[in-house]
From TrEMBL:
GO MF assignments: pyridoxal phosphate binding; transaminase activity
Gene Ontology BP term (one): polysaccharide biosynthetic process
Annotated signal sequence range: none
The organism's taxonomic lineage, starting at the top: Bacteria, Pseudomonadati, Bacteroidota, Flavobacteriia, Flavobacteriales
N6-(pyridoxal phosphate)lysine, modified sites: K186
Originating organism: Maribacter ulvicola
Record has Methyltransferase as a keyword: no
Name under which the protein is recorded: 8-amino-3,8-dideoxy-alpha-D-manno-octulosonate transaminase
Gene3D superfamilies: Aspartate Aminotransferase, domain 1 (3.90.1150.10), Type I PLP-dependent aspartate aminotransferase-like (Major domain) (3.40.640.10)
Record's keyword terms, sorted: Pyridoxal phosphate
Similarity field: Belongs to the DegT/DnrJ/EryC1 family.
Length: 397
């Protein structure tokens, strides 16, 4: 997955371009900047590649989720449905605006189970936030039907699946809003950065203002700009955007490499009767950043993961007891451990997750092993890896 593996001349010359102009900020300094607008350029490249009307760059994927929610008017006490298997950024972005993260089970897609989503809807629900984990996607068609039925927003977290698609649409563009992360370990990176894509002009305008202290960006005198509503600073810098300008040009090449490496590994494991692969919903095309598969039981999966590591197959993950990605280790959320007082809505409405039953998620995640697909592997390394994985996993029937 990590685009940093293949940094080259284009990244260097883009960054040098910004340093030569001397303007590291995305707004203002029109006279000084010699027509360098890297953030704007990257936003345009994103709208083209993702086939949406608008894109808004921000400082991180977490910021993108926060700004996306804020731009759609989500606030204190609103409930946002999110999966038990994701990254901590999901609930962080929801809590940041005083909204309530409602955890819901995942299924064999390793993403939101649509039936569980429908069960979790209350009169406070405003958003369904599927997270396209490990390169593949939620059943967006089913989720969209639910959102339409209950008049909810569909916000796609596509931070780990950029370049994948569903029913021919790039992931992130199917829902009302989509978010990407360009942090250091994502498929394409800015070092730090994130983006929101949407076809909704009002959300774009709100995201543009909100991510820059509420500035209305009218005219060419920053000091004179008005602030129609409260905002915050989630800006990306020109230096970061410049790296992204180089990387987005390479996205499709990266996807081709990922698909090639993924396919070699998958074909090697396919004959094993003890391995089944993560389900990709009908109409979905992965971005191939991970190969995820199920072993027969939780106990076997844990042992198989350890054995892969012992055999030198690195970068494989057993998510079930992972600190960052699975609800079981989110003790800080469960115990509401915050530095200061939480908004009263959160105190009152956050479910007691210590008592929740997510055994349906456990049944899938407990059996899952995911292996990262790297860009820098040579053909020999992939072949060797495939053979080793097959040999190790064959012992765990
Ligand atoms: C990386 C990631 C984020 C957050 O991105 P940052 O840029 O690191 O803040 C959000 N969601 C998912 C699924 C991610 O993998």
């Amino acid at each position: 997955m990590p685009g940093f593996e293949l940094f080259g001349e284009s990244e260097k010359s883009q960054v040098q371009d910004v340093l030569d102009s001397g303007v590291l900020m995305r707004y203002g300094f029109d006279g000084m900047r010699n027509n360098h607008w890297k953030a704007l350029e990257l936003e345009e490249a994103l709208t083209k590649r993702m086939n949406t009307k608008y894109a808004q760059l921000v400082s991180s994927g977490t910021a993108a989720l926060t700004v996306a929610l804020a731009s759609a008017g989500i606030g204190a006490g609103d409930e946002v449905i999110m999966p038990t298997f994701t990254f901590v950024a999901s609930f962080e972005s929801i809590l940041a605006i005083g909204a309530i993260p409602i955890l819901v089970d995942v299924d064999e897609t390793l993403t939101l189970n649509p039936a569980a989503v429908e069960n979790a809807i209350t009169d406070k629900t405003k958003v369904v936030m599927p997270v396209h984990m490990c390169g593949s996607m939620a059943d967006l068609k089913a989720l969209k039907a639910i959102c339409d039925k209950y008049n909810l927003l569909l916000l796609e977290d596509a931070c780990q699946a950029i370049g994948g698609s569903f029913e021919g649409k790039p992931l992130g563009s199917y829902g009302d809003l989509g978010c990407f992360s360009f942090d250091y370990v994502k498929t394409i990176t800015c070092g730090e950065g994130g983006a929101i894509i949407t076809n909704n002009e009002e959300y774009k305008t709100n995201a543009d203002h909100y991510s820059d202290h509420g500035h209305d960006h009218v005219g060419d005198n920053r000091g004179a700009e008005r602030h129609p509503f409260l905002g915050y600073n989630f800006r990306i810098s020109e230096l970061h955007a410049a790296v992204g300008c180089a990387q987005i040009e390479r996205l499709d090449d990266f996807l081709t490499i990922q698909k090639k490496n993924y396919t070699v590994l998958r074909n090697a494991l396919s004959p094993l009767s003890n391995i089944t692969f993560r389900k990709v919903p009908n109409g979905g095309v992965e971005n191939y950043s991970f190969l995820s598969f199920f072993l027969p039981t939780q106990e076997i999966a844990k042992k198989a993961h350890t054995a892969l590591g012992d055999a030198g197959v690195d970068a494989c993950f057993y998510w079930f007891d992972n600190n960052w990605h699975y609800y079981k280790e989110w003790e800080h959320l469960t115990s509401k451990k915050s530095l200061g007082k939480l908004p009263q809505e959160v105190v009152d409405q956050l479910p007691d997750y210590a008592k929740s039953d997510f055994s349906k998620s456990d049944a899938w995640i407990g059996r899952t092993v995911s292996c990262l697909i790297k860009l820098s592997w040579t053909e020999e390394q992939v072949a060797e890896r495939a053979a080793k994985m097959k040999e190790v996993l064959a012992k765990f029937s």
